[in-house]
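Section 4.2 – Deliverable D4.2 (structural model, holo form)

The reporting period included a commitment to supply a predicted holo structure for the target in complex with adenosine-5'-diphosphate. Inputs used:
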Amino acid sequence: MNIIFLGPPGVGKGTHAKLLGEELNIPQISTGDMLRAHIKGQTALGMAAKKHIDAGELVPDDVVIGMVKERLAQPDCENGFILDGFPRTIPQAEALKAITTIDAVIDLVAGNEVILGRLSGRRVCKDCGATYHISRLDGKTTCEACGGPLIHRVDDQPDTILNRLKVYEEQTAPLIAYYEQEGLLHAVSAEEGIEVDHQLIKEALGLTA
Ligand code: ADP
Ligand code: ZN
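Output (structure tokens):
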């Protein structure tokens, strides 16, 4: 199954894409993670992307499209994949359509207050990228999975968060109507907690017994 996770920053795309990917045994492809790996590795692509990311802006379409095209050509995508954070603009969606077919688009929906709370409290492992929320960390400052230090992403600071939400409304939200028109859209509430939301997502995909 080829699936897209759509939704504003902080709504839980990464968490749910990862969970579902593990269950279906297909890769979760996060363009945000891929870009951060490029920055960490100090590649040319990473250097070019960093200033956009830190400002809460989108990385130029051609850069991201090239990266995804290459990733989808890998053999592990043959049996399906979950795109998390791509497409984020109409041109990206058009480019994707030219490369592959999509079976379903899950649009994760949550109120603004929920989203702001999740983003401002998000902490990320510097080494493996695992995400946590301060409300559940009990003061811990290291990653449960690998022991790496937990950091507050530059783009998770209040001013940048507001810019990312604005960018989402202007550039990414139009994809909801786009995929609605394609007959692929499934809106799913992402406010009830990870377990419940996960079940709702599976129901929307017709994956429950
Ligand atoms: P979130 O979903 O919380 O916003 P991501 O890790 O998906 O975080 O993305 C972080 C940043 O990476 C974005 O704000 C943007 O600058 C860049 N980025 C990720 N995916 C794309 C994309 N498909 N197109 C353009 N920029 C992207
Ligand atoms: Zn870690």
